[in-house]
Amino acid sequence: MRHGKKTAKLGRERSHRKAMMNNMVTSLLAHEHVNTTNAKGKELKRQAEHMITFAKRGDLHSRRQVLRHIADKTVVGKLFDELGPRYSERQGGYTRLVKIGQRRGDGAEMCIVELVDRPGAEAPPVATAEPDTTATETTPDE
């Protein structure tokens, strides 16, 4: 039974899975979006949100804990200088998964993992209740 086992295996050994997730988190934080499969995306979302939570704290211990997972110091700098303050008021939910259909080669379900409220990305459409201006008023006959 798999009771208490939270991590998805993703068909890889532990060392390969750990290296892949560290690289994917680095790419997500550097580019603020990444294309991947749904299973990898769900695990990536979990890891990335954990890193952003460390960045919100902003202390030296948090920076060292992030450096255990992210080797690129420019990405760590971006995380602590830009992303941490950007999400300081947000209580979780820093990433979103957008499903984009199946991959052409093998039919794997694909998704885009992106940071919420990233600059340069168009906002999702918001439904607004606007009055219908196409109707014309009729004047009574004289």
Order of helices and strands: HEHHHEE
Gyration radius, to the nearest Å? 21 Å
Indicate the structural class. Answer: alpha+beta
- What is the helix content? 40-55%
CATH architecture: Alpha-Beta Complex
End-to-end separation in angstroms reads 84 Å
Count helical runs: 4
Instruction: Order the strands across the largest sheet as they lie in space.
Output: 1-3-2
Number of domains: 1
Might you state the CATH topology name? 50s Ribosomal Protein L17, Chain: A
What is the CATH superfamily label?
A: Ribosomal protein L17
Describe what this molecule looks like in 3D:
The protein has helices at residues 14-31, 38-57, 60-67, 73-86, and strands at residues 33-37, 95-102, 109-115. The chain has 4 helices and 3 strands. The chain is globular, with a radius of gyration of 21 Å. The model has no long low-confidence stretch (mean pLDDT 88). Strand 2 and strand 3 form a beta hairpin. The longest helix has 20 residues, at 38-57. It has 142 residues and is α+β, with helices and mostly antiparallel strands. A 3-stranded antiparallel β-sheet has the order 1-3-2. It has one domain (14-115): 50s Ribosomal Protein L17, Chain: A (Alpha-Beta Complex).
Q: What are its keywords?
A:
142 residues, alpha+beta, 50s Ribosomal Protein L17, Chain: A, three-stranded antiparallel sheet, 3 strands, globular
